[in-house]
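Cystathionine beta-lyase: structure tokens wanted.
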Amino acid sequence: MDLSYIINELGEEREHYFNAIAPPIVQSSNFAFDTVAALRDLLLDEYNGFLYSRGNNPTIDILRQKLAALDGAEDALVFSSGAAAIFAAVLSQVKKGDHVVCVRDPYSWARRLFENILPRFGVDTTFVDGTRTANFEAALRPHTSLIYLESPNSLTFELQDVAAVAQLARSRHITTIIDNSYCTPLYQQPYLAGIDLCLQSATKFISGHSDTMAGVLTGSRDRIRRIFASEFLNIGSGIAPFNAWLLLRGLRTLEIRLQRSADSTRKVVSWLKTHPRVRKIYFPLDPDFPQYELAARQMKGAAGLVTIQLNAGSRGQVEAFCNSLQHFLMAVSWGGHESLAFPACATLRTEDFDVNDPRHSLVRLYIGLEDADYLVADLEQALKKMGEVE
Ligand SMILES: *Cc1c(COP(=O)(O)O)cnc(C)c1O
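Answer:
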């Protein structure tokens, strides 16, 4: 399906709403029926229509169709956050006694689900270095029911060979889930590479304006329908109609936002590579990135996130760099219009900072929609300020 068709037309039956170009926000929790027979039909299988907005809602339905098509999948569910999508997806695939193989360093709240919550229900997880497919194979057990991927991750961008892991899992009848937030379906379509369930934090690029939280889960009609009828309705963490409308609006510009951010990111990366105060750069489409070849083969692009290891002699220097930025805002998250900086040392107690641990001098940058030269000038003055402190 044509990307322009998906973004501008798919699911938009304008004749049902006065030919309005922007879809309506159907701000209703509830839907009425003319006959007992019609009500009974939907109570039997809520998937098929509009009964109650914890399940289906017309505004959200338009969004679901677009998000499924973007992934090349058959259906989608939209949640109130990416974390909710992760929770429902994982919960749907495990039962007591099962084992999960998860890529090392997944998104922090995915890791906490595997480490803190699932063990309470008798589900164990093995974390593996996902840069080698053989590591997944070696970790499998007779009761492994799920392989959980995130390629690339959103700090140091380690990749997995998505098609190879999908093939391994299929040969063992193990379900695969991938967190595709970094690439979005525009730069990577894991469903078409054989992954069973794809999820994204739509809070990031799909929304694109730092004004709503959301999560997306896509897969085959059969899998999504089963999750809808169980975890989705039971957890009750579906997106609200207004937030779905914000995502529809965000989608209109997704392609050009990613393109702009990708172009600026390339410019910023090539400038950073020449700067003596930057020791190392992590960016998957940088030819010096250790998995560059896999990234170039598997991903159609990369935008926004780039992590630098500062050539810093102290915590004070890392902090001086971050505190001196004038246009990059210091914050978690990413994917909006605004450029951001996030220092890894903010996750550490000050006394735990070790100048010899390269991870402690990492600063993740997100390159938003500002002009690249404007951002480079900001980085330049902040790197200079960094050199002025002990
Ligand atoms: C932000 C993020 C999530 C969680 O999404 P929320 O919308 O914040 O709940 C999951 N995975 C990745 C890679 C993320 O960056």
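The chain has 14 helices and twelve strands. Residues 81-83, 107, 154, 179, 181, 201, 203-204, 213, 215 surround pyridoxal-5'-phosphate (CB under 6 Å).

Cheers.
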